[in-house]
Amino acid sequence: MEIIVCVKRVPNLSETEIEVDRDGRSLIDDDLEYDVNEWDNFAIEAAVQLKEAHGARVTAVTIGEEDAEDVLRRALAMGADEGLHLMDTTFDGSDAWGIATALHRAIADRPHDLVLAGAISSDEARGHVGGMLAAMLDIPMVALATDLSVDGATATVRHEVEGGLERVTRVDLPALVTVQTGLNEPRYVSIRGIRKVSGMEIPVKTAADLGLDASTVGARAARVKLEEIFLPPKGEGAEMLDGDEESVVAALVDRLQREGGL
Amino acid sequence: MKRIIVVVERVNGELNETAFELLTAARGFEDAAASAALMGESVSDAASELTRWFENVHVYDDPSLAQPDGDYQSRVLKPLIEREKPFAVLIPHTNTGMELAPMLAVRADAPLIADAISIEAVGQEIRSVRTVYSGKVQARVSADPTENGAIVSVRPGAFAVPEAPPEAGGSVHAESIPEDVAPRRQFVETVTPDPSAVDISQAEVLVAVGRGIEDEENLELVHALAEAMGAEVACTRPVVDKKWLEKSRQVGTSGVTVKPRVYLALGISGSFQHLGGIKGDPFIAAINTDSAAPIFGVADVGIVGNILELVPLLEEKIRARG
Ligand SMILES: Cc1cc2nc3c(=O)[nH]c(=O)nc-3n(C[C@H](O)[C@H](O)[C@H](O)COP(=O)(O)OP(=O)(O)OC[C@H]3O[C@@H](n4cnc5c(N)ncnc54)[C@H](O)[C@@H]3O)c2cc1C
Ligand SMILES: Nc1ncnc2c1ncn2[C@@H]1O[C@H](COP(=O)(O)O)[C@@H](O)[C@H]1O
Prior knowledge:
The complex is a heterodimer.
Chain A: E1 2-6, E2 9-12, E3 33-36, H1 38-54, E4 57-63, H2 69-78, E5 82-86, H3 96-108, E6 114-118, H4 129-137, E7 141-151, E8 154-160, E9 166-172, E10 175-179, H5 191-196, E11 204-205, E12 224-230, E13 239-240, H6 245-258
Parallel strand pairs in A: 1-4, 1-6, 4-5, 5-11, 6-10, 7-10
Antiparallel strand pairs in A: 2-3, 7-8, 8-9
Helix pairs in contact in A: 3-4
Chain B: E1 2-8, E2 10-11, E3 14-15, H1 18-27, E4 32-40, H2 44-50, E5 56-61, H3 70-84, E6 88-92, H4 95-108, E7 112-122, E8 125-132, E9 137-143, E10 150-154, E11 171-174, E12 185-191, E13 205-209, H5 219-229, E14 232-235, H6 237-241, E15 262-266, H7 272-275, E16 283-288, H8 295-298, E17 301-304, H9 307-320
Parallel strand pairs in B: 1-4, 1-6, 4-5, 5-11, 6-10, 7-10, 13-14, 13-15, 15-16, 16-17
Antiparallel strand pairs in B: 2-3, 7-8, 8-9
Helix pairs in contact in B: 3-4, 5-9
The structure holds flavin-adenine dinucleotide and adenosine monophosphate (AMP).
């Protein structure tokens, strides 16, 4: 079985002060820390577990700058067999369509029984690259898997539907499945584990290698243009309780009591 | 005139609220005519209800459409888009919508704006605001409709349901499934939730905990606080993913919907998927180390601080009231 996993390197913003850069379209990234997209980490683990159970070749693919290689190394350390790095300034500013187009070109000509993507990327938060890629490959897809098994040429997927419910769906391979968090418990990646795979060659492909150029990928070709990004206006929302610990907690107790919370 | 098609979703056999929210979005376009596209099995009642809201209702009524399958739906709808050539197709940004919208966009060769919280047409362009970077940043995006229009997946809850149906007196158009189109997925079963699981949906006071709790052991602090308050413990998805609390305590679009009087959010960033499970406009208090956490945008009162320090203190003060 040939498994392809799409992985993305994203900034981890949960506790970082962020500022919009002067171009109005990106964040100042001096102090940002990056990691593999949370959903993609579950996808890699799912692929590696299928490999361990049935035997498979797992290829992790990413589109991104030089540093994006980190997420491929991480995937290799978890048990992926190969990495594929699509890197070219021509890809800069691609929308979901552009990303899916490049992934499609990279995947279409190689064997792919199962393609895995994250349900969503935490930075761009679209949840659309997987579905677009499936349509371009003309293979069926199932979104938001919380359980995944393969038997011969059929995948059985438990996945989230509306109303907090889950369904079980069967689909013949080749197929694309997007992965929801909680599908498994991704294994820990140690620095030693990364070091072990540091010698592995990761092939790089450019836009031209994939037969693509600025008319199909990148900012100019984007069908959805990013005009600007901005921080939500400050001061809207909660009344902030200030002071030392004792007094803020006392004030909170007071408010909770008044609202019937105690 | 701008033709807008709203893809209607049914949940457990009922028309989903998003159908009417998206109608509001459609009517925001100047000089718009709103049609609905309805897919399912035995949906004639739903179709006639929709004629009160939409001028045209395109109905695909077939046993093969009984289960939501975005992959199949995208191939069913493609000819409709090519025939009607709408200015925009609005699809709810729900679980099935996340399958349908991207596949339909590619098949119909139309641009796709994801998870929009606002929509407007400026000339021939569609503009939307959406949230990025874990909800901490907003983005303004635009798309030029192609011949087949543009697709916008719209965040549930972003638009209000009209107070009353506009009594559109719409007409039903029975549509047929294209000949060469068949499902490629096989429905096996719906997973029945565990009936013995705790039910937090009726709780009046909830102490909800997120990833900010950092470690499983620290949950003791939260349980102790909830006990002192006479509250139930709730949580976000990552806490369930780590198996620290049961799934039945997860609040959100893929968890439980709650409607408490008071909601205390501890170490929760405030993603829309989490907030989507909180109804009834409760009093929300939040504690978070990050002053820019989106939760403070929706909370009534907030404290910037460390829950590991503040929660024990809070419990102590509550118990001390006697
Ligand atoms: C289709 C779909 C459905 C989803 N459904 C749900 C759902 O039903 N429910 C749900 O919750 N999520 C759901 N999610 C996930 C959601 O997108 C978020 O990832 C999740 O809600 C984040 O949980 P969190 O706030 O606990 O974690 P984070 O976003 O990581 O936030 C943790 C917060 O804790 C703060 N913090 C850290 N340490 C401390 C400390 N010591 N003291 C105080 N604060 C601290 C941080 O500043 C941060 O704001 C869904 C996602 C998708 C794609
Ligand atoms: N630059 C990228 N490189 C590789 N995979 C990506 C990239 N961007 C998005 N993806 C995949 O598409 C999924 C959904 O992303 P999105 O549609 O941007 O929310 C991610 O979880 C990844 O699996």
